[in-house]
Structures are given as C-alpha cells and as structure tokens.
Amino acid sequence: MNEEEFGHLVRQYSRLIRSAVARVAGPSAAGICDDVEQRVLLALWQAMPGEQMPDHPSSYIYRAAVRETVRAVQGLKETFELGPEADKADLSAPPDALLQAKELGRAIRTALSEIGTDRRRAVTAHLAGYEVKEIMVMFDWPYHKARNLIARGMADLRRKLDARGYSD
C-alpha cells in the first residue's frame, strides 16, 4: 500500500474509528480518541504491507479500533487505580529506600481508600500525572469541579498521611 492509498484509507475510515472508540470507551473517549486512532492507523499500516489490503477493510479496522480502545482504557484504569505498576520500584536503590517507598505507597493507597469516591478519583488521576483538563474529560466533570476535587482531595490525603506520621 502506498502513501496515497493509505491517506485515502485514513480519510475514509476515520469516522468509523472514532465511533468505535466512543462506543467502547464511553465518557472517557474524548481524552483517548486521538491516541487510539493513531494506534489503529499504525497497526493498519504495519499489518497491511504491499498489496495485502482487502477490498473492504472496515471490519478489520473496527476490530482494531475496539482492541486498541480496550487496551487504552485498561491502561488508564491501571494508572488510575494505582495498579501493578505502582509497586514497581528502582531495584538499584538501597533496600531501606525501597522499603520506605513501598510503605509510603501502602499508606497512600490506604489513605486514598478513606477519601470520598470523587475526590479519590480526582487525586489518583492527578498523582498519575493527568492535568485538570484531562481529568475533566476523563470523568465528564466541569472545570471547577475537577479543580476543587483535586485540591480538596489532596488536602484530605495530606491530613490522613500526617495522622499516620508521614509529613511533607
């Protein structure tokens, strides 16, 4: 497939990809749509070298869009929930530093579990590196709500960590 044919394919099926992402991801689709579309197009480019392109690739493209959306949503979920990646640490660090980091991680997770649901979601996303605008899109909140939930949730988290002996 040459660049011109690929460009035509992109223009022709972009709406299908975005529709599949919106259907699978729901309200968080706006925050990941561009990324997923790029992943689908890259997978399409890599999977269809030369003349292997089927005459009607819409079902392949739809399945690829669904697959990549599920992967993106799972990645967000793991990040948001402080999943398996949260326990990985730099193994070159001294053992006592690793232990302290692990204990702090447990204390943060425990403190987060004691915070209200919306504040916990906002703080977890904030700690994962998302900006207010991304958090707004992710949870379908207005700007002021997202900003206030982050600020109040972080204050709650600090108080709970201080009570457990973890200060700034």
What structural keywords apply?
168 residues; mainly alpha; Rna Polymerase Sigma Factor, Chain: A; Arc Repressor Mutant, subunit A; 2 domains; 7 helices; elongated
Question: Can you walk through the features of this model?
Answer:
The protein is mainly α. The protein has 2 domains: 3-80, Rna Polymerase Sigma Factor, Chain: A (Orthogonal Bundle), CATH 1.10.1740; 84-163, Arc Repressor Mutant, subunit A (Orthogonal Bundle). The chain has helices spanning 3-25, 29-47, 58-80, 95-113, 117-127, 132-139, 143-163.
Question: Mean pLDDT, as a whole number?
Answer: 77
CATH-level-2 architecture of the largest domain: Orthogonal Bundle
Uncertain runs are: 82-87
Assembly state? single chain
Question: What is the number of domains?
Answer: 2
What is the CA–CA distance across the termini? 57 Å
From the spread of the alpha carbons, the general shape counts as elongated
Total of helices: 7
Output the CATH topology of the largest domain: Arc Repressor Mutant, subunit A
Which class do the helix and strand fractions yield?
mainly alpha
Strand content: under 5%
Please trace the helix and strand order, writing H or E for each element.
HHHHHHH
Helical content band: over 70%
Question: What does the largest sheet look like?
Answer: none
Q: What is the highest CATH level, the class of the largest domain?
A: Mainly Alpha
Report the strand count.
0
Query: What is Rg?
Result: 21 Å
